[in-house]
Amino acid sequence: MKRLVIAIAAAVLALAGCGGEAIVPEGQGAHGHGANSAAPPPPAASSRFNDADVTFVQMMVDHLQLGISLSQLAMAKATKQETKDLAGAINTTQREELSMLKSWLKLWGKPEQGGANLHVQHGGQPLLDDKVINDTKEKSGAEFDLAFLNLMTGHQGAAVEMALTEKKDGQNPETTAYAERVANTRQGQIQQMLKAISEP
């Protein structure tokens, strides 16, 4: 599984380019300036959108909820402080994004869930689901840390793929801008997690 996830992540980085910001511990800004760096309020989406925008946002709502569940598990169970910091940063960011995306769907009059076949129609089932998260709960110590990093690397790689599709097909300016941010930040996260995986 480790080799599979690394291969997936490497392919995503090659497709999207190797740029991107590394994630930082909770409470710091994107460039590590500390908790006093005020983040701008999340933008409200305009009413101009197409089906690609709706599909992307609905898929990201599901994606973010699973990522939050996994990151909260790692915040409680990870043994390395670096892993806990990674999980904390992901949890904070994705909770903020989830609230924003839900507000966009409400504005558009669209449901938060896109239906059982949403992922199947767009490349198959996600790598992460409730069963996988429950199975991960049974691990401990270094085995848990490695499992978390592998799963989250693949999970964030899927976010990059979804974001690249939205950038190509979407119409709503706020949604395509968000997709650009997702592609950049998740690439940085993947690079940081791959480095952590390779370390003893």
Automatic annotation (TrEMBL):
Instruction: State what protein this is by name.
Output: DUF305 domain-containing protein
> Which UniProt keyword terms apply here?
Signal
This protein's source sits in the domain of life called Bacteria
| Annotated signal peptide | 1-22
In Pfam terms, one family for this protein is DUF305
List each copy of the DUF305 domain by range.
53-195
InterPro entries hit by this protein: DUF305_CopM-like, Ferritin-like
Organism listed in the record: Lentzea aerocolonigenes
